[in-house]
Amino acid sequence: MGNPREATEAMEAAGATEARILARRSYAALWDVDGVIIDSGEQHRQAWEALAREQGFPYSDAAFWAGFGMRNSDSIPLMFGVDDPERIAPLSERKEAIYRELLQREAVALPGARELLVALHAAGYRQALGSSAPITNIETIIRLLGIGPALDGFVSGEHVTHGKPAPDIFLAGAALLGVAPARCVVFEDAPAGIAAARAGGMRCIAVRRAGQADAPGLEAADRIVDSLRELTVSDIDQLLGVHVA
Questions:
Q1: CA 196/CA 189 separation, integer angstroms
Q2: pLDDT for the residue numbered 4
Q3: Which residues pair with residue 203 across a beta bridge?
Q4: What is this structure's pTM?
């Protein structure tokens, strides 16, 4: 016959866990993709360089990193001086086709990304991706990394009028999840994304790019980490002011 006290304690613990999960359901984590969940910066760089070579455009890594995190419609004029929408659209489509070809060869989650996604989902947080990337790219990454079960949806730059550093993507993500912006934390690696989170009234955690100096604007985040392995559910609770028993 079981110990009544132990049974009672187990029931109380289960109830407390359920209460914590319910408390977190009104909070959310919004994730940038490139440089946060997956390290595909090199594939993007190679794709832009290949596009420039095909089209006879000048290319520099400095110009690439300056536009990293922006929508193609914003970065193409900066990189190549092309501002005609009828030219930008096919250039963007070609670049993304090259990128997806490269991505299929190697898609690896960054250290701690999948683990934190799963932990926050299990803890009760609503979660969505918020990326400037095209819809097809986001769907491909979700499939390749197998992170769909931890997500409640995603927002692409194709879904909104203004890309980062405007807050549209993250505000749309908060609306998708039914969570107030002030109760959202954004995971980002690019200054444009950090500015977008701030403009949306959200908390922000910046993930450093390995081997690179901090870009100007990274310091605007609430916290900067070298790796998502540094973070726990309790850290996110504390940052957002989630009160759990």
A1: 12
A2: 53
A3: 185
A4: 0.81
